[in-house]
């Protein structure tokens, strides 16, 4: 092999230990351990920092314990760059794809030195098209590969502690590290787009003003952009293409010094914790950027393809593709489950994050090949004293057989509730036959989670997420506009249940503007007043637009970035959102995990939940079966109290009436008669951009505009 002009560094090695996996510095040297069941042997390649090529030393991992290859190298220190080469059979039809000419990233690397600029040299093969056969590629990829980095894991956490926000108080904000900070005028320019910028006082203050208790970060694991994107001058901005399950992505680091991103991430977590805000990571364990059979060899494929991936039975040169990206991690194998488990444990324990949202989660809990609620990984996570205490959220679907599993994850998991998203959108679009489903969604989705101990907290409610239209664009666009993605507008979600009021995009028409702003308030009011856990998409509080792009995964620009100059309408919406967040915090009846029963209080007789027609009469079974019913009122009462006089006051102070009119035209509601209150004060009506309103007596009329939402509270005055 080629070497530097200087003499090779003489390094003392010893057997080392198979545990822990990865590269662990102990103050005197580094222990390297990597799993491969089928490799004949593995070489450790060391690189001098700042000198990417050639290698300063190759060391064969002579020791092997339970298929873990390991060695201890004396004298190495943090900052050391390294990679692996795996030797063995190259025979894709048998599932074996070892090619030692391809440098591999350590799956347990705590940091990666830079980006992968994908090229054909990263592939372990060349394709003989005449016989459609993969033949081993002899080119060395090391010069075009980032290196794994030895990291010193010590960090002064000071008095940091996990906020441990209960689910009853949780408000989640889904955000992107770059997107939230790139245009913020009060974030120093050199910090924009970084972990440090995200932890700046200006950003944290904004989140606190919204009542946010947890920021859910889109993937921050070290990721790779697909070659097609790079060829077109684009990048994988979202980051759902993870290369390193333990490594914070260096592209979000203020310092580009390899390894510095680890401490910068920790500083960010510490800053959020200081303000009582939890950090939840969106993690992608279901697939890797190595893709299908023609994809690059960067890490797992080269270390042990047959172990790490699900291969097609009888066709081991092909991959089961439950992710839609070419491959699926083989979580049926104990070593792969350990990789996922160890990654979760590392981020929760050493990086001190507070929870995880698992992308395409059913892919991780499949056994030959069906989704399995008793999968060992469920049990391992639930049985761990650290992971069992963090917030666990599933995206409960993948693209495999039986992949839609909404409502079918076990405790203690919560789930992204797409039924909630779709129903709320359809209701406010005035679709017929949606009202019964809307009743379930707004009251906590007991049809999905009625058997769960978590109750309504199992439901993560959202109207918009990164995947689809923003809340603003739901009201401004009927059709997607993804032309900037250079896929001929064929990509992105199809059914958005949007309502654009007859004009696509920006308009000066006052009536259309008013309708759109009201619709945004309808969405936000529904989100904050529903039972369950609300999740707000970055920028929806101020009307952020992606100009109709509902799949902005490759747009690292102002299409995706948060605008901090939203204009007068955006500022009004922001104030309304803050008002809703404070309202939710003030009323325990909106935050209860127990499902409503419809049963009256033992002493006072008030039902905890009652549904009324607009004429004030209580709804019957026939009413629920009316597909044209698009208007109703709901009275929520916190009846979960005792039988004393104080309890009666508590009930009155925790009772709300919701009036929902999804009819395009106005509807006059009759305020229901009842012993609960002689009058009802309007807290807000979405026809107005500011809260407040009159008091209406029981049995009196209240006129609602088309597609509007009003909230009332009991009043001692009859109006």
What does this structure look like?
There is one protein chain. Helix 9 crosses helix 10 and helix 13 (510-529) runs parallel beside helix 14. This protein starts with 12 loop residues before the first strand and ends with a strand. The chain is built from 16 helices and 35 strands. Mean pLDDT is 93; it is low at 1-7. Among the domains are: 13-149, Immunoglobulins (Immunoglobulin-like, Sandwich); 597-715, Golgi alpha-mannosidase II (Immunoglobulin-like). Helices cover 21% and strands 21% of the residues. It has 719 residues and is α+β, with helices and mostly antiparallel strands. The strands form 10 sheets. The protein has an 8-stranded parallel barrel. A 6-stranded antiparallel beta sheet has the order 28-29-30-35-32-33.
- Radius of gyration, CA atoms, in whole angstroms: 28 Å
- The helix content, as a percent range, equals 10-25%
CATH architecture of the domain at 13-149: Sandwich
* Shape descriptor: elongated
Q: Do you know the CATH topology of the domain at 13-149?
A: Immunoglobulin-like
- What about the largest sheet? 8 strands, parallel, barrel
Full CATH superfamily name of the domain at 13-149: Immunoglobulins
Oligomer: single chain
Distance between the termini: 89 Å
Uncertain residue segments = 1-7
Strand content: 15-25%
- What is the CATH C level class of the domain at 13-149, in words? Mainly Beta
């Amino acid at each position: 092999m080629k070497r530097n002009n200087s003499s090779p560094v003489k390094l003392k090695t010893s057997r080392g230990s198979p545990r822990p996996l990865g590269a662990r510095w102990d103050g005197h040297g580094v222990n390297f351990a990597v799993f491969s069941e089928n490799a004949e042997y593995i070489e450790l390649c060391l690189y001098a920092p700042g000198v990417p090529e050639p290698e300063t030393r190759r060391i064969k991992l002579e020791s092997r314990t339970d298929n873990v290859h390991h060695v201890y190298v004396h004298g190495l220190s943090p900052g050391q760059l390294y990679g692996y080469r795996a030797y063995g059979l190259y025979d894709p039809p048998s599932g074996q794809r070892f090619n030692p000419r391809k440098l591999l990233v350590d799956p347990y690397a705590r940091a990666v030195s830079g980006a992968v600029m994908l090229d054909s040299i990263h592939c372990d093969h060349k394709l003989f098209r005449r016989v459609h056969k993969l033949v081993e590629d002899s080119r060395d990829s090391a010069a075009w590969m980032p290196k794994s980095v030895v990291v010193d894991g010590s960090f002064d956490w000071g008095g940091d502690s996990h906020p441990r926000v209960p689910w009853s108080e949780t408000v989640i904000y889904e955000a992107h590290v770059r997107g939230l900070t790139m245009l913020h005028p009060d974030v120093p320019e050199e910090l924009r787009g970084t972990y440090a910028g995200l932890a700046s006082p200006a950003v944290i203050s904004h989140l606190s003003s919204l009542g946010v208790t947890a920021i859910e970060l889109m993937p921050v694991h070290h990721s790779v952009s697909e070659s097609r994107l790079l060829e077109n001058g684009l990048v994988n901005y979202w980051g759902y293409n993870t290369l390193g399950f333990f490594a914070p992505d260096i592209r979000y680091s203020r310092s580009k010094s390899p390894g510095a991103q680890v401490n910068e991430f920790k500083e960010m977590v510490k800053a959020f914790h200081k303000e009582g805000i939890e950090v939840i990571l969106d993690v992608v364990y279901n697939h890797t950027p190595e893709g299908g059979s023609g994809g690059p060899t960067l890490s797992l494929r080269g270390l042990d393809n047959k172990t790490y991936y699900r291969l097609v039975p009888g066709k081991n040169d092909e991959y089961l593709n439950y992710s839609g990206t070419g491959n699926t991690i083989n979580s049926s194998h104990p070593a792969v489950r350990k990789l996922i488990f160890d990654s979760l444990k590392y981020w929760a324990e050493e990086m001190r994050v507070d929870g995880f949202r698992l992308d395409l989660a059913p892919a991780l809990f499949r056994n030959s090949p069906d989704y399995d609620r008793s999968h060992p990984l469920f049990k391992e996570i639930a049985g761990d004293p650290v992971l069992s205490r963090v917030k666990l959220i599933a995206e409960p679907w993948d693209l495999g057989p039986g992949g839609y599993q909404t409502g079918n994850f076990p405790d203690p998991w919560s789930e992204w509730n797409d039924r909630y998203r779709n129903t709320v959108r359809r209701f406010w679009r005035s679709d017929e036959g949606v009202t019964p489903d809307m009743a379930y969604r707004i009251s906590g989705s007991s049809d999905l989670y009625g058997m769960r101990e978590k109750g309504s907290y199992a439901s993560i409610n959202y109207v918009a997420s990164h995947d689809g239209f923003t809340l603003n664009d739901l009201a401004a666009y009927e059709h997607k506009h993804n032309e900037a993605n250079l896929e001929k507008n064929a990509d992105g979600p199809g059914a958005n249940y949007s309502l654009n009021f007859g004009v696509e995009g920006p308009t000066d028409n006052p009536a259309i503007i008013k309708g759109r702003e009201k619709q945004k308030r309808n969405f936000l009011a529904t989100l904050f007043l529903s039972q369950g856990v609300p999740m707000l998409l970055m920028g929806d509080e101020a009307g952020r637009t992606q100009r109709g792009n509902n799949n902005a995964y490759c747009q690292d620009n102002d299409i995706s970035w948060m605008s901090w100059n939203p204009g007068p309408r955006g500022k009004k919406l922001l104030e309304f959102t803050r008002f809703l967040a404070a309202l939710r915090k003030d009323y325990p009846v909106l935050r209860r995990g127990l499902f409503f029963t419809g049963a009256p209080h033992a002493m006072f007789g008030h039902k905890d939940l009652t549904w009324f027609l607009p004429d004030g009469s209580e709804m019957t079974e026939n009413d629920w079966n009316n597909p044209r019913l698009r208007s109703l009122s709901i009275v929520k009462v916190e009846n979960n109290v005792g039988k004393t006089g104080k309890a009666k006051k508590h009930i009155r102070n925790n009772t709300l009436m919701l009036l929902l009119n999804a009819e395009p035209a106005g509807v006059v509601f009759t305020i229901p008669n009842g012993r609960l209150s002689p009058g009802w004060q309007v807290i807000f009506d979405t026809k107005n951009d500011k809260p407040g309103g009159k008091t209406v007596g029981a049995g009196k009329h209240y006129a609602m505009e088309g597609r509007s939402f009003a909230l009332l509270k009991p009043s001692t005055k009859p109006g």
